[in-house]
Each structure stands twice: as structure tokens, then as C-alpha cells.
């Protein structure tokens, strides 16, 4: 059994990272294992910004967004030499295993690290995009979706008052999960995601017909950033329809805020599972949930295989628009 491990958060922050960190630290201590925190991700690892943690280190954080450990990018860690340096930093402090909480890029780093260096590494999927293969949940995705739905509800009020077309651009460069799930929950007329082609001329024709049939009509369009710019889309739609169109870009607001109940509970469960597995000798695995059940996914598969949106949700979006 491992005697001393470390935990870090990396890449973009997501609500629930603190809950996961808390679970890792307290599970390790409960199991008689020493645990360290690494500040500012792989950058902090290379700089030796590593400190001992105890149960009080993670008090009063489960409700907080962001990450108390901090996060930063590191080009040096992307090199084999950088990863070797990172291992020496951990080895010098007696660290035998590492929990990495982060998204696709962070997990890629974890996978390379575990393959090249004699250290056990497990991952937790901390990303609001919910774009990691082999699972239907990532830490922070539920909170971000609820933040978007709250914005949709507010946009609907003002769009209805002015009979406008309202466009909301949300995060999702390569995966449209956030746009799809929040658009469904918010009752959007159109949901545009990078995984699906859309015909803007056809959409404008349909919108023109909607307004011709009712003086009090308004339209709400949710667009993932990977499917196009909300502002540019708004300019085109207004030009083609002649209808007052306003675009909003939600931006990094989606990353912040106190985590939802689901993100607090699931992040805690995953933190415990990952820690128990790590100290027992498991490595090169990501822990998450799929169809309501715990899953462990090979790190290589998680980062090399592309996640697809559920066909039934895409179909529902078309039926209910």
C-alpha cells in the first residue's frame, strides 16, 4: 500500500474540484496515508510548490467554487524532460502516487507521466464541458449547466418583452454537451452544437415564418462556441430576417459559483474511490460515473477516444424546438 500521495488540480477550473480535493485528503488520512497538495497544477509540481495537508486543510471548502490548490498551464511539463523533472520533485518528497483532477489536457499529461515515470497516477475528470470518453459525468458540468439555464430564464424574459431573437453563446469548443443539455432544459427553439451541421438560411426562413404567425413571438437560440460565434450569428440572422436580434456571450461565468448538490456529492464519491484505488496500487485510470454507476476508464482510452452526444438527446432537441 502506498504511504504518501499528492493531489493537484489542473487546467480550467470547475465547480466541485474543492469537494474532490477534500475527499482525497480526508480519505487518505482516514486510511493512514500521508497526503500533500500541489499548488498551481503541473507548473507548481515543477517548481516544488508542494505542502503537507491535513483534515483542517480542507475544512470549509466543499461549498466553494474554483480550486483552493490553484491551477496553471505548463509548457515545460509537456516535454519528456519536464515530466522527468516533475517526478524528481515528487520523489524528493517521498510521494509515491498522484491524483490529478482536470480535463482532457490535464489527463493527457497524467497519462504520459504515468507511462514514463515509476509513479502511480489516477485521474478525476474536472471539466465543465463533460467531454471525456467513457463517462456521462464530469466534475463541474452540472453546476455550469444550471448557470446557463439561469441565464436562459433571464434572457427569455427580456426577449419576450421586446419580441426579439435572443442568442446565448456558451462554452464547448469541441463538445456541445453544455449547449445541448441547457438548451433542452431552457426550452430553446434552436440548439447549435459542433457535432451537428445546421443550415442558417433554413433557420432564418423558419424564424421569419414564426414571427409572421404571431405578433408576440420571440426565439431563443443556444450556440456552443465550437459551432460559431454568437455575435456573428446574430448579425447574420438580423440581416436575413430583419428582426431585432441580440447576442450574449456567457463566458467564464459558467466556470464559477458554488457547486450544485450533484457536483458536491459526485466529486466526493469520486475522490474517495480514486484515493482508495491509488493507495492500493491502481494506476493509469480515470474514475467517474456512467449511467448512474461508478466506472473506471483507462487513461489512454479516455484521452484518445472521442465522446459523442447521445442520439436521443439530439433527436429530442429537434422534436421539441
Question: In words, what does this structure look like?
Answer:
With 321 residues, the chain is of the alpha/beta class. The protein folds into two domains: 4-140 and 259-304, 3-Layer(aba) Sandwich (Rossmann fold); 142-255, 3-Layer(aba) Sandwich (Rossmann fold), CATH 3.40.50. Helices cover 44% and strands 18% of the residues. It is built from eleven helices and eleven strands. It has helices at 17-30, 41-47, 80-92, 104-116, 141-162, 177-186, 200-213, 230-241, 261-279, 299-304, 311-320; strands spanning 4-9, 34-38, 50-53, 97-102, 120-125, 165-170, 190-192, 219-224, 245-249, 285-290, 293-298. A seven-stranded mixed sheet has the order 3-2-1-4-5-10-11, with helices on both faces. A four-stranded parallel sheet has the order 7-8-6-9, with helices on both faces. Helix 1 packs parallel to helix 9 and helix 5 (141-162) packs across helix 6 (177-186). The protein starts with a strand and ends with a helix.
